[in-house]
């Protein structure tokens, strides 16, 4: 018999408890031994929980129980999540988590502690919810040098951009709708400003390279400034607008991008997430699915429990990243829009730009690759109404 | 030092040798020991091969070398591939393969032999080339009950259908082009008739359920009868036409299907492959990438070598399948086309059918779900010009 504890009886914790219960026979067969949920840690009493008899309020009960071999930390946030995970690893218990903040900030420390104590720290659920994403990078595709990752890693912003694209909704209306449907938090800033996606691309890059950066060093632009008129113009020109977390040519960034309809990422709509990986032998691989929600996230957390109990290899021990390259040198094609009166000036400044059907009263084009520095200089010479990056197929 | 042997110096074998050479440092780091390619078995001498010094003509040399711990069988076909694999497993060597015919026909025997001899038989490359597909089913998503698989599993037919859809090419012209580009064999029948896709859906279903069927029992329809006019009509109605291998509601089948543009599978174009899996917790997950080619296939074969050398769990031991359910009861919506003169008769026979823009001179509709038996009865009453299955989003 193997015993599991879950820290946190919220949405994800409840999903994990349900999966361990409903799929118990299958999970036990995978592990080769009965797998039992022994504790759920929560500060609340929750007498109506189907697992009320297993709720404890004191983490020490779990930590000091030698029967518990795997702990799922699904509390979220930095503290006490980090402290619980660290104590569990030091006590020789495997830790699995959906906590992207904790992995992104403390991944080097926690994976180091795991290695030092002969256990593992696994975090498949921290990026892309239920999508197998981290294990493919660390195992199936690990013999490849992964040299590119482009991810739609935040369901809230993708839902908003999909509504703007399909129905011409404004950002504000689409956000309000996402909040009403429970896809966006009451304070949506971590999603809308790209903070959530930034943590996830940091983790994915860490899995591909072994190096985890300080996520505040990653250049990040959210979607609040994206105009419906730009999304519409992009659609007419053959592109979808998506918030991408990217690892490309040594750069890391999060920003809204135009993606050509030829690229399968462009068809990742609504709350779905996807990541397009490029490996030096496998070429392009895309992994797509539900990036959030109790059941999809539970699938990844419980999958990690099984991996821990079976002793699967393929865990990374992160190193702390050195400085990222100067972002001013990052180069890609651009979608630029200016007032109609500035069209001639813009075209003179950007040779080779391709004119497209613009927002009303404006002039818009897709440019050849331009660096961030070049766009900054351009802004001083002409008043840009919109400037978005383009991710070519 | 770990020693590897490759059986077959063809396209895939050469790709594997290249990957083991070019990515040797990375692969050795993953395994924790230097990994070395010791032998390539081929009946030819191939003095110009970069690995000419490692070519042997006698399988016994490999079989009897106790240093060889993993053998990659990339010969293809049933024999001698099966015989070599069986001998290797009995000699206590892991076997990895890209050979879908061998896995689909002899998978139960070979996985049984592996288990009996304390080694593993792995075959990630047998379905979907470089796409992580089998390991996600057997590991990452294994805690889910996988209750649906819809796969675009054959690049040749997908290339042909993509050309017919995008450019209005005829089947014959698209096939000739595929042959010219090296995407189709001179004898394309195994691809065009769905035999290749049938083997692959059999293997994927086996991974999801543990049960491998006799693949000749799987109802299979190829793409030779698909008319460009139907592909065009489907496109105007909001559907792509794709050859799908399906596991759904207990049924297994291979047949061309209309897929709505809302479904991400519908955007899998050209030689790319994809599979949409449905798990009872994770929901929909799609895995997409290159389904063939030396490098992509090598990525999967070498990934399996690493898994074997690291001792990763997640291997299936297949049982032989019982009889499949009566296919006459299989039910799905249909695309039907008749001569314009038969429109009224068809509509009278199929209440609730939705009329769509038809091929010239015909009448076409999308029906509510109809069983195979119902369509057979319909054929006796009205002359169907086309009848294709529809896979709803």
Structural account:
2 copies of one chain form a homodimer. With 393 residues, chain A is α/β, with parallel strands linked by helices. Chain A has 3 domains: 2-130 and 295-320, Rossmann fold; 134-288, Dihydrodipicolinate Reductase, domain 2, CATH 3.30.360.10; 327-390, Alpha-Beta Plaits, CATH 3.30.70. In chain A, 37% of the residues lie in helices and 25% in strands. Chain A contains 14 helices and 19 strands. In chain A, strand 4, helix 4 and strand 5 form a beta-alpha-beta unit. The interface between A and B is large, with 55 and 55 residues. Strand 12 (283-290) of chain A pairs antiparallel with strand 12 (283-290) of chain B, so a sheet runs across the interface.
Could you give the topology of this structure?
The structure is a homodimer of 393-residue chains.
Chain A: E1 2-7, H1 11-22, H2 24-31, E2 35-41, E3 55-56, H3 59-63, E4 68-73, H4 81-90, E5 94-97, H5 100-116, E6 121-122, H6 134-140, E7 146-152, H7 155-167, H8 171-180, H9 189-192, H10 195-209, E8 211-212, H11 228-236, E9 239-248, E10 251-260, E11 272-279, E12 283-290, H12 294-310, E13 319-320, E14 331-332, E15 334-339, H13 343-349, E16 354-356, E17 362-366, E18 370-371, H14 372-381, E19 384-390
Parallel strand pairs in A: 1-2, 1-4, 2-3, 4-5, 5-6, 8-13, 10-19
Antiparallel strand pairs in A: 7-9, 7-11, 9-10, 11-12, 14-18, 15-17, 15-19, 16-17
